Amino acid sequence: MGRHFTVLNVASVFVTLSPLFTSCIGNYPTFLPLSYRIGKPEYFGPPTTDQATLEHETTHHHSHQDGHCPPKFDRVGSDCFYFAEEKRNWWNSMLACWEDDARLATFDDPHSFNEYVLQTHGEDQLFWVGGKREYNGTAFEFPVGQEVPLDFPWSHGYPDSIGHCLAIGYQGGFVNDVCDQHWRYICHTPLLEGPPPHCQFPFIWRGGWYTEACATTGDVDGIPWCSTKTDEQHHHIPGNWKHCQNEPWVGHGIVYPQNED
């Protein structure tokens, strides 16, 4: 259900968004904040991950009165993160997050976030996050204009002079790697207001009439999902859905063929 696409020419994508990108493709601290401002002002600014509440809470396991995470995102403290399974280069990872109304992960407390990633995913794989440096520069910055602090939890031997994009997960710390390398990535978005939406049954999707079961196809992670908003004829409205592992209808329920009459 996640929206994924492959960018063959990253420069052309940014050029179509704004003429300003024609002169600053590759000048990350300049153009990326602009791109995040286009139609997405709520995602531009410091994240709010609080060390005291940095714990793994998922929206499909808990009902939060103070907010909830969008589909496929897990709640971590007071923010929502998605650990993608597919591998992309840094640029396409950024765009994949953007397509989900999110951004590559940034955080107030890199030490706590590093510990969380280490506990949940180990230290034998890499995830792209939102930090980068200019190709002729030495300082790493996040999209919100924050410089990497002096006590940043780098992995042993890093940063080096080779890579310009920031990743996490190798030997229990952060590394800088070549931006064209393909790694998994972490998307980040603020909490949505209010409690999570409920499944709307029945709903129609791709010719199936779902009355007693969530859909088990169409999700990139293979997790059952349901529609949270339908039209008057019960057709699923794209973009309005959620995972539903713990809903009572999940399982091998009946999916009736749609009656075209």
TrEMBL record:
Entry keyword annotation includes NAD: no
Keywords, in A-Z order: Disulfide bond, Repeat, Signal
Signal sequence coordinates: 1-26
CDD domains the UniProt entry points to: CLECT
Domain C-type lectin: 76-188
Molecular functions (GO terms): transmembrane signaling receptor activity
Region annotated Disordered, chain positions: 47-68
Domain Fibronectin type-II: 194-246
InterPro entries named among the record's database cross-references: C-type_lectin-like, C-type_lectin-like/link_sf, CD72, CTDL_fold, FN_type2_dom, FN_type2_sf, Kringle-like
GO annotation, cellular component aspect: plasma membrane
Compositional bias per record (Basic and acidic residues), positions renumbered to this chain: 53-68
PANTHER family per UniProt: B-CELL DIFFERENTIATION ANTIGEN CD72, CD72-RELATED
Protein name, UniProt field: C-type lectin
